[in-house]
Amino acid sequence: MSVLVDDDTRVVVQGITGGEGKFHAEQMMEYGTNIVAGAVPGKGGQEAAGVPVYDTVHEAVEEENADTSVIFVPPAFAGDAVFEALDTDLDLAVAITEGIPTQDMARVNKRLSETDTRLIGPNCPGLITPGEAKLGILPGNIFAEGNVGLVSRSGTLTYQVVDNLTNRGIGQTTAIGIGGDPIIGTDFVDALELFENDDETEAIVMCGEIGGEDEEEAAAFIDDYVDTPVAGFIAGRTAPPGKRMGHAGAIVSGSGTGTAESKISALNDAGVPVGDTPEEVADHIEEFLG
Amino acid sequence: MSVLVDDDTRVVVQGITGGEGKFHAEQMMEYGTNIVAGAVPGKGGQEAAGVPVYDTVHEAVEEENADTSVIFVPPAFAGDAVFEALDTDLDLAVAITEGIPTQDMARVNKRLSETDTRLIGPNCPGLITPGEAKLGILPGNIFAEGNVGLVSRSGTLTYQVVDNLTNRGIGQTTAIGIGGDPIIGTDFVDALELFENDDETEAIVMCGEIGGEDEEEAAAFIDDYVDTPVAGFIAGRTAPPGKRMGHAGAIVSGSGTGTAESKISALNDAGVPVGDTPEEVADHIEEFLG
Amino acid sequence: MKLHEYQAKQVFADAGIPTPESQLASDVDGVLTAAQEIGYPVAVKAQVQVGGRGKAGGIELVDTDEEAREAAESIIGMDLKGYHVDQVLVEGAVDFVDELYVGITMDRGEGKPVAMVSTKGGVNIEEVAEEDPDAIAREHIDPSFGMHPYQARKAVYDAGVDPAVARDVSSVLTTLYQLWDDRDGADAEINPLMVTADDEVIAADAVMNIDEDALFRQPELAEMEAEAAGSGDDLEQKADEYNFDYVRLEGNTGIIGNGAGLVMTTLDLVDHYGGEPANFLDVGGGAKAERIANALDMVFSDDNVDSVVFNIFGGITRGDEVARGINEALEQFDEIPKPVVVRLAGTNWEEGMEILNEDLVTVEQTLEDAVQRAVEYAEEVNDQ
Amino acid sequence: MKLHEYQAKQVFADAGIPTPESQLASDVDGVLTAAQEIGYPVAVKAQVQVGGRGKAGGIELVDTDEEAREAAESIIGMDLKGYHVDQVLVEGAVDFVDELYVGITMDRGEGKPVAMVSTKGGVNIEEVAEEDPDAIAREHIDPSFGMHPYQARKAVYDAGVDPAVARDVSSVLTTLYQLWDDRDGADAEINPLMVTADDEVIAADAVMNIDEDALFRQPELAEMEAEAAGSGDDLEQKADEYNFDYVRLEGNTGIIGNGAGLVMTTLDLVDHYGGEPANFLDVGGGAKAERIANALDMVFSDDNVDSVVFNIFGGITRGDEVARGINEALEQFDEIPKPVVVRLAGTNWEEGMEILNEDLVTVEQTLEDAVQRAVEYAEEVNDQ
């Protein structure tokens, strides 16, 4: 089993005629993802990456029974693209785009409370169920089928940790990049809940970073509801306050909230060991799996 | 029993320091309504109609445990006052104000889908449970305790019909004026459902008028779900298309929707007799009650 | 409140919607000058607030000075469905290959705005809606968010608009929604939105109805309303001055009452008892004596009226105030111009009855009796 | 992107928020002229993007030309927490009886904006938030509706603002939210919002941070950003030109990587293995050779840097492109300025390894080894 995505998932790619959209649509197909359509206003009737393109997501859903969208749309138009996905009858929308204005995401966040469609991202690498399908830009070759669920705010850090796991022969059920923005669709708690309810997931890696309080909330959730063992990693221990460390969401506030210390101690209090290095995270997981 | 309001209802009056607000607060109290506070920005700490005035509805709720608001606020500010009421933890808000811009009410309508607070009105006379309490501007003396539920889009037409009932010795459980605007909080279907579930209500009067399709929807609802006998009245049979007949909502469209004929025939099809005169409505009710 | 075509076009053009070059004119010379400046062919269009101007002879397409003069002479000053034509819009004719429809209105059933697009523009859209509802693409708007750009595109693509102009039509629709939202529109529409052979879109007509309840926060539009006045019915203008909800009808029994539903019911009963209502007049809640007198003045001013029924059920309105108003209004006449039947009920009706001068009016106890008596009076006058 | 005080005040004043009379000056004469025109007492305020200017000597209240000259001489050109003061704002001093705080920010936990009001203005609001959280009234805003007028009032009354100014403070808060919303604000605040003895309110300071991701639709503010530049760190300016996510730190191990989380992790590992990170530099996803070379140029330009760790885990980024960029950047040197440790993993890492000129760099296979090696190099340089 796996969560959110498998080889039955029928994908429409918003922005499939753009450079990135086309490249990654092809990469996803190569990995085995069932891309059924693209959606680009004004490009209806064309073909891209070997699938038909529609002017609207609604048409793609009607004509090709897409149930999931992956969004590669430039930041100025991405908020609107996310609304379009959320207002269509999809199960899942994955927004890869980095740099969507925060106020656009606040409005998206409001809409999320009104719809059953799940959003992952934005500013995320997407998610992958090794051996079945990937949605987004993750490099498929480093992943392996297995029993570890992984959720992370960062893309390349995810690859690093996965690499450490795969090199030891530890595969993954599903890996989810939830994104590095201050306002995102699916958060740690949502992802932890999915893994906790997944029969195949026997251990969970959670890669957090400075900024906000999602990791603290996740720690509380783990304490209360998660029986699956969790190992953590928190990036940004050395980040100075008030500086945005690459991700729009990765910032320790001037008043000192959102620090790595706070997150690590919350996780430790919830019984989650936090590695000092990615290797140490793999050590903990290896231990969990016995 | 009764619906929505009784002598336990704890009322805050928004706009209690205005001429109408004060007058009707006093009238309501005289009738027995439990007015516990007023809310008027900038008038906090004063007293009006013998109750304390607060700057915000929230304070009135916190300090006086109000559970219901009656709104007498001029149209330019009434939309905001309704939002304030809906965002407070109230059971019921009754907006008497006539002339709230329709776009304000469309936004209120959106909020209504997000809250558990019920709105009655705007542009309505309010509601009354004879012998217990009234919320709004209805003349208490024409009502009598009894077993007929009444719901109406019009104020004075309600009084006329009630008068015809009361004169025959037929009293009312609760009478609800839902208001004459195109966008209102509680509609016929909502009110019919309340009466259908009320043990004491043995017959229902429903006074509709031209414009919109609420009466048609009510007819369908009656057909499917209402066992209590209903008698109807529809005002505006002689109204020409395209003219607003007093109420913002009372208009037969240029294309001929919203006519009295359509409503009367829908009600008849649902087994609801529609009186040609208010007296005939009372005849039907008398018959129902045997 | 409905803007004139020329006003709505100005509002649309200011917001960036392409409109044809045009000038307003109120006499033949003005039309000729405008036509020459714009260049033939031009359309000469009566500026009155009624639909179907074209069929009624209010719009002429002209190619020469001679034709322009003829059109100006026939249209300016004409009576168009009861409205006097004072002004015409002289407008460059557009060479079109397609006529679209775009509009925004409030869907009261849903309680939210709806955007509409159709490729069947240039004809009565309500007829299209009835005969071929699928020819109109509809997109409901969440008024808290406003119209998302994708919704404009979706409506345009769903309607099957030619891809070559889809982007421009979406943009017009987006602007139209923005205007509707900013200006408290009731309806805003462009019919037809013309498409030229060069794939340009241009608003050949413009409709903008404003929510009257919102005019207090639309001072610019309220001024336009004043400008737009003058072409309406005299009695309806008087009602505006008195601030009455008033609708003029064709019959001879005048009706005054309080509360929209009750007044409508009174009209219906006049009809039910064989009479013909002359008007709808709602004095509103809590009317004082002066307002009551004004209402009588309104109805007496209508030459069609042969009798009056005055039906008050007092809630906020007090019977004694009503009675005083009736006395004041009638006592100034040597002879009462039309017979008045009065029925008072509700708050202070007994006090009202005591005050009321029964030499001047006929009193009835019930609504039904009052209406029947007024209808009889009107018939008697007609029989004379 | 943070506006200067004088820019934020202009934006606030244009929107109708009362601000003191003020003029910008960049030399002593300018300060004197401004002070005389405004009239003493005035405040002379350093225009640099740091908090705590007052305590650091960047704000002086002066009563005479003599004092103004002294203040101008001491402030203009001073180094204030690492920033060079080029300009001062000369501003009429406000005689106040109360200092309030009003602000709007994004509550990321809730995913919605929050409006804040406190009667404890004039001090660091974050300290107030920690020590006496109830002293700040908070009202969350639904971003689809925007701030309802009642919410502004509620925040103001909840904060216990004097009723005499409650209406004006609500109005300032409403305007502030509108600005925050229209201008893509991250934070907007007025601290203090002064209250005078005459019950007038006036914004004595102004903070406006703009969401950098939204600057594309805020051309006016983007221009202000250009104006505001010039007072920052040289390297940070260079990073802006190269369009890198870059943060300068105090250590001596330079760090280049791809992806925010991985770069942060590399910093953390430098610290973990006993070194001190000199910077955060993220080349982003899919960097081509030129961009890689630019990154090396950035880090070499930092005099503090003694060694560099180059850590790439390729997803979109390709190892061969990275290797080519490193070669290109380093082959132009006769002598490599600082030792560079490279670790390539992920997409095309093997191709990268083949291309990489190992005469120019030290190659390590794992992140941990690469960081340790770079820390050792930096220590060696320091030991020399």
From TrEMBL, chains A, B:
InterPro entries: Cit_synth/succinyl-CoA_lig_AS (IPR017440), Citrt_syn/SCS-alpha_CS (IPR033847), CoA-bd (IPR003781), CoA_lig_alpha (IPR005810), NAD(P)-bd_dom_sf (IPR036291), SUCC_ACL_C (IPR005811), Succinyl-CoA_synth-like (IPR016102)
Chain residues that bind CoA: T17, G18, G19, E20, K43, I96, T97, E98
Protein name: Succinate--CoA ligase [ADP-forming] subunit alpha
Source species, domain of life: Archaea
Active site residues of this protein: H247 (tele-phosphohistidine intermediate)
HAMAP family registered for this protein in UniProt: Succ_CoA_alpha
Keywords, comma-separated and alphabetical: Ligase, Nucleotide-binding, Tricarboxylic acid cycle
Residue ranges annotated for the CoA-binding domain, each copy included: 4-100
Similarity section: Belongs to the succinate/malate CoA ligase alpha subunit family.
Entries under NCBIfam families matching the protein: PRK05678.1, sucCoAalpha
Subunit structure: Heterotetramer of two alpha and two beta subunits.
PANTHER family: SUCCINATE--COA LIGASE [ADP_GDP-FORMING] SUBUNIT ALPHA, MITOCHONDRIAL (PTHR11117:SF2), SUCCINYL-COA LIGASE SUBUNIT ALPHA (PTHR11117)
UniProt catalytic activity: GTP + succinate + CoA = succinyl-CoA + GDP + phosphate; succinate + ATP + CoA = succinyl-CoA + ADP + phosphate; acetate + ATP + CoA = acetyl-CoA + ADP + phosphate
GO cellular component: a single term: succinate-CoA ligase complex (ADP-forming)
Automatic annotation (TrEMBL), chains C, D:
Pathway involvement of the protein, from the record: Carbohydrate metabolism; tricarboxylic acid cycle; succinate from succinyl-CoA (ligase route): step 1/1
Residues making up the signal peptide according to the UniProt record: none
EC code: 6.2.1.5
Coiled coil: 353-380
Domain of life: Archaea
Cofactor note: Binds 1 Mg(2+) ion per subunit.
Binding-site list for Mg(2+): N191, D205
Annotated residues for binding of substrate: N258, G315, I316, T317
Alphabetical UniProt keywords: ATP-binding, Coiled coil, Ligase, Magnesium, Metal-binding, Nucleotide-binding, Tricarboxylic acid cycle
Family annotation (Pfam families): ATP-grasp_2, Ligase_CoA
UniProt xrefs under SUPFAM superfamilies: Glutathione synthetase ATP-binding domain-like, Succinyl-CoA synthetase domains
GO cellular component labels: succinate-CoA ligase complex
PROSITE patterns: ATP_GRASP, SUCCINYL_COA_LIG_3
A GO BP entry: succinyl-CoA metabolic process
Annotated ranges, domain ATP-grasp: 9-221
A single GO molecular function term of this UniProt record: magnesium ion binding
Catalysed reactions, semicolon-separated: succinate + ATP + CoA = succinyl-CoA + ADP + phosphate; GTP + succinate + CoA = succinyl-CoA + GDP + phosphate
UniProt: ATP binding residues: K45, G52, R53, G54, E91, V94, E99
Cofactors (names): Mg(2+)
Subunit organization: Heterotetramer of two alpha and two beta subunits.
Function: Succinyl-CoA synthetase functions in the citric acid cycle (TCA), coupling the hydrolysis of succinyl-CoA to the synthesis of either ATP or GTP and thus represents the only step of substrate-level phosphorylation in the TCA. The beta subunit provides nucleotide specificity of the enzyme and binds the substrate succinate, while the binding sites for coenzyme A and phosphate are found in the alpha subunit.
HAMAP family: Succ_CoA_beta
Family of this protein: Belongs to the succinate/malate CoA ligase beta subunit family.
Protein name per Swiss-Prot or TrEMBL: Succinate--CoA ligase [ADP-forming] subunit beta
Organism: Natronococcus pandeyae
Protein's gene: sucC
